[in-house]
Amino acid sequence: xxxxxxxxxxxxxxxxxxxxVFWSGLSFGxxxxxxxxxxxxxxxxxxxxxxxxxxxxxxAGATVxxxxxxxxxxxxxxxxxxxxxxxxxxxxAENIDQEAAFSSLLDDGYHRTYREVSRKDAVxxxxxxxxxxxxxxxxxxxxxxxxVRYSSxxxxxxxxxxxxxxxxxxxxxxxxxxxxxxRNLTWFGEGARSGxxxxxxxxxxxxxxxxxxxxxxxYRDYQRDYHGLYSRAxxxxxxxxxxxxxxxxxxxxxxRTWIINAYFDQFRFPWLRYLTNAPSDGSDVxxxxxxxxxxxxxxxxxxxxxxxxxxxxxxxxxxxxxVQVTQTNYRFNASYKVDD
Length: 340
Known about the structure:
The protein is mainly β. Helices cover 3% and strands 54% of the residues. The chain has 2 helices and 18 strands. Strand 12 (199-210) and strand 13 (213-222) form a beta hairpin. The longest helix is centred in the middle third of the chain and has 6 residues, at 114-119. The radius of gyration is 23 Å and the shape is globular.
């Protein structure tokens, strides 16, 4: 209506840039057989239509055309979030000292027992945020900022491997993203910074080298102390921090009925991880051949080989050395559409 492009009242999601600063709601895995689907297409504000009881925003948001080619979005959210809090029926010195703290957020949605019910909406979460985007026919640039605040202090049970993860009551992230289209090439990326000074960034290219051959590349560098409570960016790990890597993918269509997809991803974790007591690295190789002679028949064969480093088992003294852990998967799939 007029300059208002979108208006959200109630439960909604907000997605901006490449997901490095702010991306609420569910997000699918970064790597798949669709090797050219690296770039995320943020939709801004949209209704929440899933069933998860925590991964949404509750409040209001609006997207308005501020000026020609300039669009701005502002949103606010306030809701209860399931969390692990000290058990009031089992007071200890530690619980008394941390009465106003919680150790982790919960997304499982289970409320089956007294203890689980006591965790429901145990913490109030308030989010303020905004996004400003300048668009041109062949390029656009945007800026995003968001602050997440809890009613209690997040006090994790930190170990050496996760000592840089977020603790406290509020976190602010902000950054910029871009998208450039030039002929058969698309360049995109995003850079972000959290309130503690942690930095994270990614940039990628999508190139149509020929009508039969396409190439995708993505480089990411996420510092170990970057805090993104609502970050859902491309990553080997669940969260986009403590990771550096380079991804290359191709899609080849030699004929109308054959498609070949492949990618190679090499990554490194500069700091320790769970069950990995030293900086480590790894790789991921994937290939798939698809034959689709008509609209009713599709056959494909794929293989994937992953390699990572983890602690050795059975070591009783000293620091566990790292060993290579490999996993190889094969799949053959045939689909036939019987009728409408």
